[in-house]
Design goal:
about 650 residues, alpha/beta, Nitrilase/N-carbamoyl-D-aminoacid amidohydrolase, 2 domains, 7-stranded mixed sheet, elongated
């Protein structure tokens, strides 16, 4: 449960219809299997103690009289097991029969939840034997079951002592299909997990709809959702069941036993702290009066992570999705720039073009915006400004790119101007320090700004989200523009968008874009090597962008602590970086993220394209003088 990860399990029970003894043994087997797997929470199917398809046998005392003794035996035999278990059984109360879910833990019956919606259409006729939960009058009752006094009702929450975010509620099968299911109220009252013991028969197309319903419910309620379906062991007189089990988290499918697969037990980890953070930041998430909270105790232990964590969380793994993402981002960027150009009446767009990825993307966006406006691409003024570190490769690519796109290219060699500035302020050209580098960046920005004034245009910013996160920009240099089109595009995604444009356009343009993609990321502010190659590689200085983007995503999107970031990164990059390397760059990320906020506090306008952005007017309201001490202390005190 460390860092909020709950290991969830959903299991099949190959029932023998109406044979409670046989079913009890199979339930015990699943409970022991879940315990050995380290599960915190186990869900078993609807009415699995008797079988769902007993029909009018549910009127039989012989069947119903066997339920309580079997439950008591299960409780006794599982008193030492770790998981909390939710299983389905029929229950008589006050002259009525209810379709219920019992919640068990370490020999104790925590509570019993009756089914709200009883289907009585098509192949289902549950109202023939069962009464709905509303018969109880909407209040929680107390019943005596298996020798214990037990809460009985729909408004029950089960919460782990010492870990309030680990809190679950129960709804049963058809309840999920309601327009306003019980899970809505349970989630609003604090349940981060919903368990659904189910008996949903298999017909053509139903599995896809069932999966969609579970995923969409988990997304809408910002919760984890465990769905456990009845097995093919049920009667096949009129229906067939498939053991279709699902574990979902906020719209993502974590694990699934597809129809008629024979996995037995599916397992995954649900991040309840992440879910709690989502609700915290989503201030429109509803709340309702507190329900009856039933505590249980599970010793805290670190849950082994088996679920995958994407190395590049900003980048969709499937090629088709990457293409769709690239096109969507380009559309957002170009439409945003189109509006800004039209609103200001700008005659030109002025952009510094270096032959690198960021300025290439910005130029591609600008070309799209001009095409949308019906403006002549020659009114885009792309300016290359060679100086001490400019290489032949990047300079050549900048020229070829502008030629293929049909924009106006202007070269302004800033070497003499920078040397004059060095003389004015007393900077030695032999001293390759921050002043040496930043003087070039600020001179370039001055040239762009003045050219914009001269031509009645706007300066288009090229810096990306990753550079803003690290503060890898010269204050009032490349940090500044009149509209930053890449401001919320992370470095790991920039590459894929440029690749998309290369594949889409083809020809000579694709060739130059491909060479730009193969060029090392560099600000080119230090003199090139003797052989003309780039001497200054950004990732050698600030670390791998894929790691920094990973840290940024999980820290801002889900509020992950430094220790959790380290753990997640180790899981994602175990085959790529040592723990020491990950920790080193994580400390660098934290230090730079906090110390460089002042640059973000006055950053130019730019379009938001994803869920993680750093605009001080939009998603990040962070003081420029906040201390990183707590975050760094946590990293320094990580256990060996």
């Amino acid at each position: 449960m460390k860092h909020g990860f709950i290991k969830a399990a959903v299991g099949s029970v190959d029932v023998t219809v109406a044979d409670i003894g046989a079913n009890s043994e199979k339930i015990l087997s699943r409970m022991k299997e879940a315990d050995e797997a380290g599960a915190n929470l186990l869900l078993l199917p609807e009415l699995c103690l008797t079988g769902y398809t007993c029909g009018d046998l549910f009127f039989s005392d012989a069947l119903l009289d066997g339920v309580e003794p079997a439950l008591e035996e299960i409780l006794q035999k599982t008193a030492s097991l770790y998981p909390v278990t939710v299983l389905g059984l029929p229950l008589r109360y006050a002259g009525k029969l209810y379709n219920c879910a019992a919640v068990l833990h370490r020999g104790k019956l925590l509570g019993v939840v009756p089914k709200t919606a009883l289907p009585n259409y098509g192949e289902f006729y549950e109202r023939r034997q069962f009464s709905p939960a509303k018969t109880l009058g909407g209040v929680t009752h107390t019943l005596t079951l298996a020798g214990q006094s037990v809460p009985f009702g729909t408004d029950l929450l089960f919460q782990c002592e010492g870990m309030p975010d680990y809190c679950f509620g129960v709804e049963i099968c058809e309840d999920l299909w309601l327009s306003s299911p019980p899970s809505e109220r349970l989630a609003a009252a604090g349940a981060t997990l919903i368990c659904n013991p189910s008996a949903s028969d298999e017909v053509i197309g139903k599995a896809d709809y069932r999966r969609l319903l579970v995923l969409s419910t988990s997304a809408r309620l910002l919760c984890g959702y465990l769905y456990g379906n009845a097995s093919p062991g049920e009667s096949t007189q009129d229906m067939v069941f498939s053991s279709h089990h699902i574990i979902a988290e906020n719209g993502s499918l974590l694990a699934e036993n597809r129809p008629f697969e024979e996995k037995g037990l599916i397992l995954s980890e649900i991040d309840v702290k992440r879910l709690a953070h989502e609700r915290h930041r989503t201030t429109t998430f509803p709340s309702c009066p507190t329900m009856t909270v039933l505590p249980f105790a599970q010793p805290m232990r670190q849950t082994e992570l088996t679920r995958p964590f994407a190395k590049n969380p900003f980048v969709p793994p499937a090629e088709a999705d990457r293409k769709a993402r690239a096109e969507a981002i380009l559309s957002i960027q170009s439409q945003g720039l189109k509006k800004r150009l039209a609103h200001t009446g700008a005659k030109t767009a002025v952009i510094g073009i270096s032959g690198g990825l960021d300025s290439t993307l910005a130029l591609l966006v600008t070309v799209r915006a001009f095409d949308l406006l019906g403006k002549d691409r020659r009114e885009i003024l792309a300016v290359t400004m060679p100086c001490f570190g400019t290489t032949k490769r990047t300079r050549g690519n900048a020229g070829r790119l502008c030629e293929e796109l049909g924009v106006t290219l202007k070269e302004v060699n800033i070497t003499a101007a920078v040397r004059q500035h060095f003389a004015d302020i007393g900077q030695s050209e032999e001293t390759l320090d921050v002043t040496y580098e930043n003087s070039q960046a600020r001179e370039r920005t001055q040239v762009l700004m003045d050219l914009a004034n001269l031509t009645g245009g706007l300066v288009i910013g090229t810096g990306d989200l990753s550079e803003l996160a690290l503060g890898w920009a010269t204050y009032n240099g490349d940090h500044m523009s009149m509209y930053g089109v890449n401001t919320s595009v992370p470095k790991t995604l920039v590459r894929y968008i440029v690749r998309y444009e290369a594949d889409r356009t083809g020809g000579a343009l694709a060739e130059v874009l491909s060479d730009i993609l193969d060029t090392p990321v560099s600000p080119e502010l230090l003199p090139a090597k003797e052989n003309g190659e780039i001497a200054q590689k950004t990732e050698d200085l600030v670390g791998p962008y894929e790691l920094h983007d990973f840290f940024l995503y999980h820290m801002l999107r889900f509020g992950s602590s430094p220790a959790k970031l380290f753990r997640l990164a180790k899981a994602a990059y175990r085959d790529d970086y040592t723990d020491e390397v990950i920790l080193h760059w994580l400390k660098t990320f934290v230090r730079r993220f906090f110390s460089q906020q002042f640059k973000r506090s006055c950053m130019p306008d730019g379009p938001k394209v994803g869920s993680v952005t750093l605009s001080p007017r939009g998603d990040l309201r962070m003081p420029s003088d906040a201390s990183a001490a707590l975050w760094l202390k946590e990293l320094e005190n990580l256990p060996e």
